[in-house]
Amino acid sequence: xxxxxxxxxxxxxxxxxxxxxxxxxxxxxxxxxxxxxxxxxxxxxxxxxxxxxxxxxxxxxxxxxxxxxxxxxxxxxxxxxxxxxxxxxxxxxxxxxxxxxxxxxxxxxxxxxxxxxxxxxxxxxxxxxxxxxxxxxxxxxxxxxxxxxxxxxxxxxxxxxxxxxxxxxxxxxxxxxxxxxxxxxxxxxxxxxxxxxxxxxxxxxxxxxxxxxxxxxxxxxxxxxxxxxxxxxxxxxxxxxxxxxxxxxxxxxxxxxxxxxxxxxxxxxxxxxxxxxxxxxxxxxxxx
Length: 288
Prior knowledge:
The protein is an alpha/beta fold. It has a single domain, classed as TIM Barrel (Alpha-Beta Barrel). About 40% of the residues lie in helices and about 15% in strands. It has eleven helices and eight strands. It has helices at about 25-35, 50-60, 80-90, 115-135, 145-160, 175-185, 200-210, 230-235, 250-260, 265-275, 280-285, and strands at about 10, 35-40, 60-65, 95-105, 140-145, 165-170, 185-190, 215. Helix 4 links the parallel strand 4 (about 95-105) and strand 5 (about 140-145). The mean pLDDT is about 95.
């Protein structure tokens, strides 16, 4: 199945996740029907490197390989070496576009003790070094951790071995932090959280940041837009609100409204920005 850059680009979707095991083909078809031409699938552990790659090939998408900060206590000690080897093994794969999802999470309570934070930071720093060695951009997990992420990115820049940019996924930092990422060559990902009227900071950023800094994402099956978000009562009953890549064009309508742009202008803008952030995507479009 060929990739297409004539439609929308979902720069962050975990299409390989277990939540899609029962109907993954139908989910991908709904995305295509909605005009989503390309999906980027980030891995989160060495155990998901193969599934992320398989999903990218099966559904005409792209993939990234990385170790997510939420899993640093679950992966093998040699996880970063496994990442390095996988990147070397698949370096000629046109669908491999980045190192990710990597980063720091300073929100989840069980990962905020001193040892867990130190482990997160070590694995993040090691993965940045791997990304530099392979010349790949990175897809960053940013949750109450922007300053820590920026510290390591600046260190590499100042030593003359900068990271090749990438995407700060699900960005929810300050305008100053946003500008710092932009100056380091990053785009900022906006998705379902932007659709909530009470998300004032995110909506302000989406409206006011330089247009060349914005990319769209769903983070499916996570971060559902407001129309898919379940009430607290429903969640208490065990129901789950699953996001899908097919929601991307409707999420984009929110961005269009915030910036006073047409939907087509938003599609063209965010697709161009995705190509700038993840240059290998251009090769997929050329071969579509």
